[in-house]
Design brief:
The complex is a heterotetramer, with 2 copies of chain A (335 residues) and 2 copies of chain B (324 residues).
Chain A: E1 3-7, H1 8-22, E2 26-30, H2 54-58, E3 63-65, H3 70-82, E4 86-93, H4 101-108, H5 111-114, E5 124-129, H6 144-148, E6 154-156, H7 161-173, E7 178-183, E8 190-194, E9 206-209, E10 214-218, H8 221-235, E11 240-244, E12 247-249, H9 253-263, E13 266-269, H10 278-288, E14 299-301, H11 312-318, H12 322-334
Parallel strand pairs in A: 2-3, 2-4, 4-5, 5-7, 6-7, 10-11, 10-13, 13-14
Antiparallel strand pairs in A: 1-8, 6-12, 9-11
Chain B: H1 5-30, H2 45-52, E1 60-62, H3 68-73, H4 78-85, H5 119-133, E2 139-144, H6 151-162, E3 167-173, E4 176-177, E5 180-181, H7 182-185, E6 202-206, H8 210-225, E7 231-236, H9 254-264, H10 266-277, H11 282-305
Parallel strand pairs in B: 1-2, 2-3, 3-7, 6-7
Antiparallel strand pairs in B: 4-5
Helix pairs in contact in B: 1-2, 1-10, 1-11, 2-8, 4-11, 5-6
Classes of the chains: A alpha/beta (335), B alpha/beta (324).
The structure holds thiamine diphosphate (2 copies) and magnesium ion (MG) (2 copies).
């Protein structure tokens, strides 16, 4: 496949174009996804430009600006998905899930089960996550543990442009509702991305770095953080293996356990706060099915049990850093 | 009265079926023969029957916790409904949903819903689907007076208005949300007036009169189908039983209910009207009553005789596919 | 203190009476908390009668029926708490959190932090949780992992009438927002309850059964389930210690670790589904700070990753049973 | 014009302060000297100033992402605001909130809010508190045209109406929600018409005219204080800058903005009116301009010179108390 350097946000954009080209039932909807100026070439295309150009190519029937009504727009997408469309709804920031959670928790996630398998809900909700942009407590949260916990939903978190495109195309092709979390601080990250259509399967983790000394499990932005930590660790002769989960639900338990089988030590790095999060979830998996493989305690590197602060100095201290990952690895290996 | 004799009889059968279905469930539930909570639709038959009589098989409805009437009017199989309410594997949802989640997408019935207001966004989604896929279908959202105070109502009606979606919003104003009277929970006499907020027609309907419902629903459905956007219909109606089976009904007088039954009963009113029109005879209606009674008895027998779900069913239907 | 047998729901009711008697700033609001009939003695007092009689005693100024508008009513309670009242809001079923989450996630939980400590939010949200009543997928969920995960909120789950009263009084006296989860299947459970005012401190677990062979951690309804399991286990000579968490946030880590120090084995029982839940959370704690105490894998007994089914046979198979707890203990001890 | 010379000068100073504050921030932000996203209030000064001029220190306001104007009009300290926006420890929220979360409960300012519509329920809560505690205070909720499509708006206004809460709902209709014009996102000419849904007065206000805002807000506040319940005010206004600093403004023409500035500018209109009334002289206003300029420069200096938060601040203020 022909690849070229491409930013994360462009990879998202390209996936949307290709999905819409292939299937007339794919539609995009959300606040300013067209962007106020109708058909005009310079329409916003989303607050960060992720949907830029779609309105010009596919028109207002399939690229739908909505009012600021997340319950209405997400619920409309659920209803549309149940009746023949494959909507990609944009929930601008995942922090806003609080104004529309019911349509995900009690409708999208449960219709199929409650209806005895007679419905399917091929819905994707794209949404931005994570801190680092000085956007403060209501625009910086990492809330995917909430959707991971909900049976009936799938939750996906890409960590690089290649996966962003391939996972989004897989999510759109998937017949179940998928919460697609885009770490906003990665939007400008560049990487090799094939021009063609391709998918990265949901529910399959990736080995972001192979190694034998310790397993580091992460997703999204924290993969980059872990890779930076692994670099320092390598300098001290500690060879970390990094598992990039990519999908939180379904979870690729085998990949986590296989790596643990190689290394015997586990550190889980996650940007969400510690309680009932992914770090706890992976720890529990390892302490149950992987107990016999464990040679030391499982350390977690997470944000603190606190809201995201505004001030840059505080925000930088809030988000897990490579230094904290290194420290956790030392602590895991030493005990 | 332009409806044919056959359609009038069909309508009567629908309303009678709803009434008998609910009366039967009320007894079964009080006798402990049905699990779970039941919200009965008796008294409101003309709304479901009147609206659904204007719809085709390809049109959609979304429903509420008080959803049996909508399902019956939309043509969901009685046996499968009853078995569902009994929690049996032969139920329309394999016993996984129960009374509050009866759905049959093949009939355009997008589900009862345990979340007040929860079905309204789904209805505009079905309408959007119809519009984008150009199927010509229309969606109807049924919901209560209480549900009009949910954010989901407000957001959905506004979106439907600006996108001119083919949808009809039907408020079933039965005077109460649980124990709370509508005069307490809103400060306006007619909920239909809320249409003003969205720039769409708002219509007050005598919800105990099948013909008034039918006429106004037909106009609204036709308007939707022409691509002119949504209508908000407020059907003034009444629920005969309590909010749920077991409700002590302390918040309304016995007289209030008796008066409605005596003066506004939708089946009585219908009977009087069609018999006096000469199109249908009393004995035809009594024959229909018998037919309905047999069908309900049959449904109960079917439900009771049906096997329970199998334990493996617990984990199926969560996803279409859930693995790497 | 004079105690007498009292049902769980009466204990709740009594706590509300006593809190309202002591402090005129305590108000109760929610859907039909008075119950439609105004001052009348036979007003509903909530769908399950938990607020029965309050309207007659305290009047409509302090016992406020609201429309079916959870965002409005919960948000109103948050605003009232920030400006001098101590509201006890009823969110009838926790399943309905999806229609009002924002007011908890982004407002109640964060105001104090975002405002640099200048606000306090002495709010209690009472809400029913759990399966077992054949109420199906949208009225049976155990969603406290969601609020436990949110920094700024406290989450409490009583398992018996004594704790129900004491924890509720403590929650109302607390200056932070507390999500008070009432297992609805325990409403009819009776137990000794003092007539007087008393509090059970937030953040303190209880030893529901002392034992030395294995630690079982649970909360709410699952304490009863675990006690039943312990009874069978005792018959085989396995002496389980049961930790009733009572508060999920703050979490009494010390009690969990202390028990683990005695037994070396851990089973966590929870009614919520497995992903990112309390069972995972406690496992992670033990696999980190308690690793050296662990003598075997940590087993979790939870509901499956599925919505709650309606049919009684399925629902009974959904909820963790004593038999499944026994099995998990065997498996933990055997490996 | 019944306001005294002093109050007119105060008002002018408030509006000029807002204008200068926002112009200064626009420059600082574009120069990269301020972290984060900024939503500027310039152009809408008459709304905040007009409404808050009718409030006392014990009255409450809730605000939005575009909240600087409300804070200034409610009397929050400029230095502390500026330091907050810079993320400094001397900020009104210790640097933890930033532009989108400025709050000062001592001044009755219950917070800017990053969630569209999120502040409206808080306002009715403050009003409930005033009512139950009989303090005589009134609460005002400020929010945008876009926010009127949030469920939180609908639920809150309805509750306030039925409980007759002392609250005033102020829509700042600046023509756009982000890039979306109001004519797209609703299907009615005046958002004030939504008052019909709640049985409360709805008032259209020329939001660029301080005096129209003041008069109508006063009536609404007095009504609220008398215990007669809420009012919905729609102030037609305009934002001079983009949705946020950095917005390419592709969705509206340059001419549109220029025309509003030339013909409806709230500061110009105010100046013309008060000068021609003879109560205030042009030179007094220019002196006020200088005073304001100095205060803003001072605030920037204060903010820049202030120390950053300390790392320990990261974990404080999450709870009042968090342990057993
Ligand atoms: C979001 C939500 N809030 C509360 C409830 C509990 N509840 C179930 S039915 C009902 C009353 C609904 O009133 P209305 O909409 O008038 O419908 P009716 O029952 O009268 O048909 C309430 C409050 C719920 N199911 N969902
Ligand atoms: C619930 C929610 N949805 C979306 C957003 C993103 N957002 C921030 S401001 C804004 C536009 C608000 O428009 P309006 O209410 O008219 O206020 P204005 O910005 O014009 O002052 C949007 C969509 C948000 N912050 N919160
Ligand atoms: Mg009703
Ligand atoms: Mg606006």
């Amino acid at each position: 496949m022909a690849t070229r350097k491409c930013a994360f946000v462009q990879a998202i954009n390209e996936a949307l174009f290709q999905a819409m080209e292939r299937d007339p039932n794919v539609i995009v909807l959300g606040e300013d996804v067209a962007g106020g100026a109708g058909q005009k070439e310079d329409a916003w295309g989303g607050v960060m430009g992720a949907t830029k150009g779609l309105i010009g190519r596919f028109g207002a029937q399939r690229v739908i600006d909505t009012p600021i009504s997340e319950t209405g727009l997400v619920g409309m997408a659920v209803g549309a998905a149940t009746t023949g469309l494959r909507p990609v709804a944009e929930l601008m920031f995942m922090d806003f899930i609080g104004v529309c959670l019911d349509q995900l928790l009690n409708q999208a996630a449960k219709l199929r089960y409650m209806f005895g398998g007679k419905a399917k809900v091929p819905l994707v909700v794209r949404t931005m996550i994570g801190a680092g942009l000085r956007a403060a407590a209501q625009h910086s949260q990492t809330l995917y543990p909430m959707t991971t916990a909900i049976p009936g939903l799938k939750t996906v978190v890409p960590s690089n442009p290649y996966d962003a495109k391939g996972l989004l195309l897989a999510a759109i092709a998937d017949d179940d509702p998928v919460i697609f979390c885009e770490p906003k601080s990665l939007y400008t990250m560049t990487g090799e991305v094939p021009e063609e259509f391709y998918t990265v399967p949901l529910g399959k983790a990736a080995v972001a770095r192979a190694g034998g000394s310790v397993t580091i499990v992460a997703c999204g932005k924290m993969v980059e953080t872990s890779l930076a930590a692994a670099k320092s660790l390598a300098a001290e002769g500690i060879d970390a293996e990094i598992i990039d989960l990519r999908s939180l639900s379904p979870l690729d338990e085998d990949s986590v356990l296989a790596s643990l089988g190689k290394t015997g030590y586990l550190v889980v790095v996650d940007e969400a706060p510690p309680r009932c999060g992914i770090a706890a979830d992976i720890s529990a998996l390892a302490a149950d099915k992987g107990f016999d493989l464990l040679r030391g305690p499982i350390r977690r590197v997470t944000s603190p049990h606190a809201p995201v602060p505004f001030s840059p100095v505080l925000e930088d201290a809030y988000i897990p850093t490579p230094a904290r990952v290194v420290e956790a690895v030392h602590s895991a290996l030493e005990s | 009265m332009e409806l044919s004799r056959e359609r009038l009889l069909d309508t009567y059968r629908t309303m009678r079926t709803i009434r008998s279905f609910e009366q039967t469930l009320n007894e079964l539930s009080q006798a402990g023969r049905v699990p779970g909570f039941l919200h009965l639709y008796a008294g409101e038959e003309a709304v479901a029957a009147g609206v659904c009589a204007t719809l085709g098989a390809d049109d959609y409805v979304t429903s509420t916790h008080r959803g049996h009437g909508h399902s019956i009017a939309k043509g969901v199989d009685l046996n499968a409904m009853m078995a569902e309410i009994f929690g049996k594997r032969s139920g329309v949802c394999k016993g996984k949903g129960g009374s509050m989640h009866i759905a049959d997408l093949g009939k355009g019935m997008l589900g009862a819903n345990g979340i007040v207001g929860g079905g309204i966004p789904l209805a505009i989604g079905a309408a959007l689907s119809a519009k984008v896929r150009k199927t010509g279908s229309v969606a109807v959202a049924f919901f209560g007076d209480g549900a009009t105070n949910q954010g989901a109502f407000h957001e959905s009606v506004n979106i439907a208005s600006i996108l001119k979606l083919p949808v009809v919003f039907v408020i079933e104003n039965n005077g109460y949300g649980e124990a709370t009277p509508v005069a307490y929970h809103v400060n306006i006499p007619d909920l239909a007036a809320r249409a003003v907020s969205y720039g769409i027609p708002g219509v007050v309907v005598e919800g105990m009169d099948f013909f008034d419902v039918f006429d106004k629903a037909r106009a609204a459905v036709e308007r939707a189908r022409r691509g002119e956007g949504p209508t908000l219909m407020e059907c003034k109606t009444y629920r005969y039983f309590g909010h749920y089976v077991g409700d002590p009904l302390t918040y309304r007088t016995k007289e209030e209910g008796e008066k409605v039954r005596a003066t506004r009963d939708p089946l009585d009113a219908f009977e009087k009207r069609v018999v006096s029109s000469g199109k249908v005879t009393t004995s035809e209606l009594r024959a229909a009553d018998d037919q309905v009674a047999r069908a309900i008895a049959e449904a109960v027998k079917f439900a009771e005789a049906s096997p329970a779900p199998e334990l493996a069913d617990l984990l199926t239907d969560v996803y279409v596919q859930y693995s790497a």
